[in-house]
Amino acid sequence: MKVLLTGVSGFIGSRLLTALCDCFGADNVIAVSSKTTKQCETIVYDDNYSIDLNHFDKISDVELIIHAGAFTPKSRTDANNIDKCNGNIDFTRKLLSLPFERLKKIFYLSTLDVYGDDEVISESTRLDPSSLYGMSKLYCEKMVSSFCDSANIRSQILRIGHVYGPGEEKYQKLLPIAIKKVLNGQEVELWGDGSELRSFIYIKDVIDACLTSIELSDDVGVINVVSEQSISIANLLAKVAEILNTELKCISKPFIGVKKSLLFDNSKMKRFLLETETPFIDGLTDEIVYFKDIK
């Protein structure tokens, strides 16, 4: 089977590329990216996500597309960047316009940001994105589904949760920020009492779920790739310090607004893609070791 993968330079995409090359062989994987990769053949697009006509013969026998490529906000302010969010839609539109001759299925890696608020988020939670990023990803979902319906091919939408693990140091998110600060002996900001719950899914579990989804023979609908393991922010910071065997230095900040825990129902994922998760403490330890190595 010939597989085309986008997003190979990203946190998830780079690891997915390695897994696909191991699974299908590098000769059967094509990367579509803004820059070349040594792992397999790469088709490089320009600043407008356009591909040179000379590359079209390379994709004619592609049977499977895994569309992981997208602008992903590295901070909250990025989530409403108009040009970057519109780029997600433009990239998907141009990808779907390529002359694939043997295409059988498209996998689209989406986000939980398409959902509105819920006590426990599941696949049945109301779709109500609060950012341009979430809106752009939901629109891309609809484009992929519509394209596949009209072409009579299959589609699979995976909405990826809060991923952690080695390699997320570029993101201004809770875990990498906390690990860096505790590792460097700096103070960590704790807003309120830190009782809000968070759930993280390990990067290896995400890759395993993606690979398993390729083997799905039935149309099971959207699947959230998320964790059911939850931990409070205060306990998370304490665990980071405990693993590093150091003192936790916190600056208490008054919390203004409504506290919100992020909890997920992953029963559908466990049924179809991933029966067991990596224990959070095991994954957290791996990530901390990684941060120590790159310090």
- The fraction of residues assigned to DSSP E strands is 15-25%
Principal-axis shape: globular
Order of the strands making up the biggest sheet:
3-2-1-4-5-6-11
The low-pLDDT segments are none
The helix-and-strand class reads alpha/beta
Main sheet characteristics? 7 strands, parallel
Number of strands: 13
Short description:
The protein is α/β, with parallel strands linked by helices. It folds into two domains: about 5-160, Rossmann fold, CATH 3.40.50.720; about 175-200 and about 230-260 and about 280-295, UDP-galactose 4-epimerase, domain 1 (Alpha-Beta Complex).
Fold topology:
Elements lengths: L2 E4 L4 H14 L4 E5 L7 E4 L11 H4 L4 E4 L14 H15 L8 E7 L20 H20 L2 E7 L2 E2 L9 H10 L4 E4 L5 E2 L2 E2 H12 L8 E3 L5 E2 H12 L5 E4 L13 H6 L7 H15 L1
Parallel strand pairs: 1-2, 1-4, 2-3, 4-5, 5-6, 6-11, 7-10, 8-13
Antiparallel strand pairs: 9-12
Helix pairs in contact: 1-6, 3-4, 5-7, 7-9
Notes on the structure:
By secondary structure, the protein is α/β, with parallel strands linked by helices. It folds into two domains: 3-160, Rossmann fold (3-Layer(aba) Sandwich), CATH 3.40.50; 174-199 and 228-262 and 278-294, UDP-galactose 4-epimerase, domain 1, CATH 3.90.25. 37% of the residues lie in helices and 17% in strands. The chain has nine helices and 13 strands. The protein has a seven-stranded parallel β-sheet, sandwiched between helices. It has a two-stranded parallel sheet with strand order 7-10. Helix 3 (82-96) links the parallel strand 4 (64-67) and strand 5. Helix 1 crosses helix 6 (203-214), helix 5 (174-183) runs parallel beside helix 7 (233-244) and helix 7 packs across helix 9. It is globular.
